[in-house]
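[Q] Does anyone have a clean structure-token version of this?
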Amino acid sequence: MLSPNDKQEIRTIILEAFDQVLIPAMNAMMDEKIDTKFDEKLDEKIDTKFDEKFNEKLEPIMGELKAIRQENAMYLFGQRRQDETLEDHKKRLRKLELI
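[A] Here you go.
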């Protein structure tokens, strides 16, 4: 059996081990976890703010791009009609040349 002094000495050694090794290790792990959570929350906020600002700047550009695409589509439609008309005129001229 252990004497009361031996038990006290073992208790002191265990408490010192907790103070010197386990508690700092637990604190380090908790700090790391807190830092990770903080970084995640900060990244979320930054991403949200960045997305909002980016969308504010991107929206007018996309509107202009859409307008340009519509103009191009209308131009291409008109160009096709002109090409078809020219082909029709060429066919008529060939018929006239044959006569």
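[Q] Thanks! Anything notable?
[A] The helical segments are 4-98.
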